[in-house]
Amino acid sequence: MTTPVNVTVTGAAGQIGYALLFRIASGQMLGATTPVRLSLLEIPQGVKAAEGVALELEDGAFPLLAGIDIYDDAKAAFEGANVALLVGARPRTAGMERGDLLAANGGIFKPQGEAINAGAAADIRVLVVGNPANTNALIAASHAPDVPTERFTAMTRLDHNRAVSQVARKTGAEVATIARVTIWGNHSATQYPDLSHATVGGDAALAVIADQAWVEDDFIPTVAKRGAAIIAARGASSAASAANAAIDHVHSWVHGTPEGDWTSAGIVSDGSYGVPAGLISSFPVTSDGGAWSIVQGLSVDDFSRGRIDASVAELEEERTAVRELGLI
Ligand SMILES: NC(=O)c1ccc[n+]([C@@H]2O[C@H](COP(=O)([O-])OP(=O)(O)OC[C@H]3O[C@@H](n4cnc5c(N)ncnc54)[C@H](O)[C@@H]3O)[C@@H](O)[C@H]2O)c1
Ligand SMILES: O=C(O)C[C@H](O)C(=O)O
Q1: pLDDT of residue 286
Q2: Quick one: pLDDT band at residue 99, thresholds 50, 70, 90?
Q3: 157-319 CATH fold
Q4: Which of 3, 135, 218, 225 has the smallest count of CB within 10 Å of its CB?
Q5: Considering every ligand atom, which ligand is closest to the CA of 134?
Q6: Which pLDDT score is estimated for 1?
Q7: Is there an atom of ligand 2 within 6 Å of 227 CB?
């Protein structure tokens, strides 16, 4: 058997973990011929539930699953990790200010960044799912000075998938015919789902849709506020769709994006499109199977500029807040 890929999943006993782990074990994330060894990280109170998930994983008799270990210690959980999915985070509770949320998450993502720095494999790739995902990724990356920041990414693939799906519903086109959709900025309500360069069956999406009011008053808010709509409907935040997006993100990173198309991911800015260098912002990205690249040369009209700037301003505020808290 080929050497298994070590995949560490934090928050393994949570709702996203439950929807994610079986798909990793079945080969949907890394491919049908790639064996995986899972390391599950939980807080001590979550370990028993993670053990239960491990029993169920065992009962799946997945041919690609080479082993499962459960930890409540980050250093041990990230030792030798090739892929790390940082799902566990501190959710916002009633009365909690944003600063409190950032501070609580700093207490999680700082030690996890340090543990990745100390022991992960040289080819480590990190996806942060836990919110606020972009800034949590920034915190983790800033505590892993020996790991290239490009390896720390934040998930905006769920927003991307939501945007594609809304275009499919509006146009009646099949999902597979929709390309070049972009999510810019933060994984929050300020994000900018952008159809300026999107295509439907090879034609300009905005021309096919021919309804700018729908784009501005329906599409953008629907995508940007979809997380809240799901919480309102389900009484809990999105889980299976978030897990699905995490699978998609890592699959695209490892196997590459299709010729002629791109996807969206939160990656470290190099200053492209006026996004200050060092921020972890969502961009249109391609992968060659090794590294993400920001799609260059796209025109940005005034409407898009304003929307991108607004979301990037929020990312800068979050960065200032975690700096002031001494978290980066
Ligand atoms: N980026 C996105 O698109 C996106 C989408 C949906 C949800 N989310 C976020 O993902 C996160 C997880 O969501 P969920 O529904 O699975 O939550 P959940 O509360 O069901 O599970 C979270 C799990 O993380 C564990 N945990 C907490 N701190 C930990 C730590 N320090 N180390 C390891 N494990 C820890 C908890 O014990 C819990 O089992 C939340 O922050 C949520 O807001 C992000
Ligand atoms: O957990 C949330 O606040 C929402 C989540 O990030 C989502 O986009 O579904």
Answers
A1: 98
A2: confident
A3: L-2-Hydroxyisocaproate Dehydrogenase; Chain A, domain 2 (3.90.110)
A4: 3
A5: 1
A6: 62
A7: yes
Contact assessment for residue 266 and residue 133, using Cβ atoms and an 8 Å cutoff: yes
- Strands of 143-299 (E only): list them: 152-154, 178-179, 182-184, 192-194, 199-200, 203-204, 263-268, 280-287, 292-294
Q: How far apart are CA 176 and CA 18, in angstroms?
A: 27
Task: Reply yes or no on whether the pLDDT at 284 is more than 80.
Answer: yes
* CATH fit for domain 5-154, picks 3.40.50.720, 3.30.1360.40, 3.20.20.140, 3.90.70.10: 3.40.50.720
Ligand 2 midpoint to CA 320 (Å): 22
Ligand 2 mean position to 60 CA, how many Å?
Answer: 29
pLDDT one-digit tens code per residue, 43-58:
999 999 999 999 999 9
Q: Choose among 224, 166, 217: nearest CA to 191.
A: 224
pLDDT digits (tens, 9 = 90+) for 151-209: 999 999 999 999 999 999 999 999 999 999 999 999 999 999 999 999 999 999 999 99
- Whether residue 301 has pLDDT greater than 70: yes
In sequence order, the 6+-apart residues with CB closer than 8 A to the CB of 225 are: 189
Residue 314, ligand 1, Cβ within 6 A: no
Residue 206 has what pLDDT? 98
Q: Residue with structure tokens 């905005």?
A: 206
Could you say which of 143, 187, 197, 249 is catalytic? 187
Nearest-atom index, ligand 1, CA of 158: 3
Domain with CATH 3.40.50.720 in the chain: 5-154
